[in-house]
Design goal:
Layout lengths: L4 H18 L6 H19 L4 E2 L3 E3 L2 E5 L6 E5 L2 E5 L10 E8 L2 E5 L6 E8 L2 E3 L5 E2 L2 E6 L9 E8 L2 E5 L1
Parallel strand pairs: 2-4, 3-5, 4-6, 5-7, 6-12, 7-13, 8-12, 9-13
Antiparallel strand pairs: 1-2, 8-11, 9-10
Helix pairs in contact: 1-2
């Protein structure tokens, strides 16, 4: 839909200019053109397909992400997404990733066979962890092992104005 924005804008602007000329209307052209631009921009944002999506970032869109060994940061902004970490395989050393959920609705699926340590922090959010803990402000640590040093996967989770669920 993004490809049609400028075409629709130019056609509607042309129709306005023709109507103004043929009916000799005394209307501010600049105000109408700017108003038309802002209205179309708002409609295209509401209707979607204006976002940015790659293998580890989602902005103004909706998509599922999967774990990639070459990515250590995942960002979800103004979006609805799930991050599936079940493809993570415990290796020789610890892997540390960062997950940021900002103005979003995110589900994070943890791997079944790995020792996981999650340090979650949030502000103005609802973050739910697999141990049943749920918080809106502050920090919380979830681990299936007693120490961070024993974990295969370390996740630093930040949630701001978001609904984030961490599931096993």
């Amino acid at each position: 839909m993004r490809a049609y924005f400028w075409g629709i804008f130019l056609v509607l602007s042309g129709i306005f200019l023709l109507l103004k000329h043929f009916f000799n209307l005394n209307i501010s052209t600049a105000r109408v053109i700017v108003g038309l631009f802002l209205t179309l921009l708002g409609l295209f944002i509401l209707l979607g397909n204006t976002g940015y999506v790659d293998n580890h970032n989602i902005i103004f869109s909706e998509k599922s992400l999967s774990y990639r060994a070459d990515s250590d940061e995942y960002t979800i902004v103004f979006s609805r997404s799930s991050l599936d970490l079940s493809a993570f395989e415990p290796g020789d050393g610890q892997v540390e990733i960062e997950v940021n959920s900002i103005f979003s609705d995110a589900d994070i699926i943890l791997p079944k066979d790995a020792k996981v340590y999650v340090k979650a922090s949030g502000a103005f959010c609802r973050t739910s962890l697999p141990d049943g803990a749920s918080f809106s402000f502050g920090d919380h640590i979830y681990t299936d092992e007693s120490k961070r040093e024993n974990a295969d996967l370390i996740i630093n989770l930040s949630s701001v104005f978001a609904d984030t669920r961490v599931e096993r």
